[in-house]
Amino acid sequence: MKRSFGAVFVIALFAAQATPQKSFEVASVKPNFSGDGPSDPKVSPERFSWTNVTLRQLVQVAYDVRPYQLIAFPAWADNARFDVSATTGMVASPGQMNSMLQSLLADRFDLAMHREQREVPAYALVLARPGGQLGPGIHPSTKDCESVRARPLDSITAQAEYAGCSPQLGLARLKVSGFRISFLASGLTRIFERPVVDKTSLSGTFDVELSWTADPTMLPNGVPSPSSVPSGGPSIFTALEEQLGLKVVSDRAPVDVLVVDRLNQLKPD
């Protein structure tokens, strides 16, 4: 359950959309042998860069998938690190940026995959209280950020609205505004590294704020919990019930997975 939280933010940004396949105008992918720790990605509508990133992280971002959704991924691709720098030559939407990164991986690593559906262990997100009463950390919203984030980023206003709808996910805090409960379930999926399916029957959009005590096994790359993260507070499971009036229960769910058919070493620029 260890992963880069930089990847979390970028994966949320690259929500999968049906867009024509495009390529970056200019792109560079080079091996990184520094031995440094992972970095955070840098993304704008016209540029993508990520330093000291693993190939698994790049694939997860490009295809908006979690580790349990990647099948037959070779061990070397989890260890090798790369520096990626690319420009779009246009104001790209998140879906277009996603497609460009997929194209780059196919070109430089000869990546080919196919999709399957498999049933895997999951959590169901349900109401925790008999009367369905919600907790103090969740309220109906007046915004619809899902619609905002689906629009093209073709103006300063659209980019500002998009930024204002960005979810916040940290080591021990989650905050989203103007999203449906299914989006919250997706955020919890990234925390638990297990599919979380919305079975609350709640409709409409919500503002949600949740905080908990970080579990060391869930921190990126196994680093110790920093002093800025409160200790002695509730677990994520307790926080869900007390703050949101929700809980997760064990379940199974069919999940789309990507099976790697072909993946080779980096081709030179």
Strand composition percent: 25-35%
Mean pLDDT: 85
Flag low-confidence runs.
Answer: 1-19, 220-229
Count every helix, treating DSSP H or I runs of 4 or more residues as helices: 8
Let me know the number of strands.
12
What's the domain count? 2
| Structural class by sheet pairing and helices | alpha+beta
Radius of gyration of CA atoms, rounded to a whole number = 19 Å
Helix content: 25-40%
Please describe the biggest sheet, giving its number of strands, its sense, and whether it closes into a barrel: 4 strands, antiparallel
Description:
- 28% of the residues lie in helices and 30% in strands.
- The two termini are 33 Å apart.
- The chain folds into two domains: 5-117 and 257-262, no CATH class; 119-254, no CATH class.
- The strands form three sheets. The chain has a four-stranded antiparallel beta sheet. The chain has a four-stranded mixed beta sheet with strand order 4-12-6-10.
- Helix 2 (55-63) packs across helix 4.
- The protein contains eight helices and twelve strands.
- A hairpin with a 3-residue loop joins strand 8 and strand 9.
- By secondary structure, it is α+β, with helices and mostly antiparallel strands.
- It has helices at 5-13, 55-63, 76-79, 94-109, 145-150, 156-164, 181-192, 236-244, and strands spanning 26-31, 42-44, 47-54, 70-71, 81-87, 112-127, 138-140, 168-169, 173-179, 196-198, 206-211, 246-262.
Strand and helix map with partners:
Elements: H1 5-13, E1 26-31, E2 42-44, E3 47-54, H2 55-63, E4 70-71, H3 76-79, E5 81-87, H4 94-109, E6 112-127, E7 138-140, H5 145-150, H6 156-164, E8 168-169, E9 173-179, H7 181-192, E10 196-198, E11 206-211, H8 236-244, E12 246-262
Parallel strand pairs: 4-12, 6-10
Antiparallel strand pairs: 1-5, 2-3, 3-5, 6-12, 7-11, 8-9, 9-11
Helix pairs in contact: 1-2, 2-4
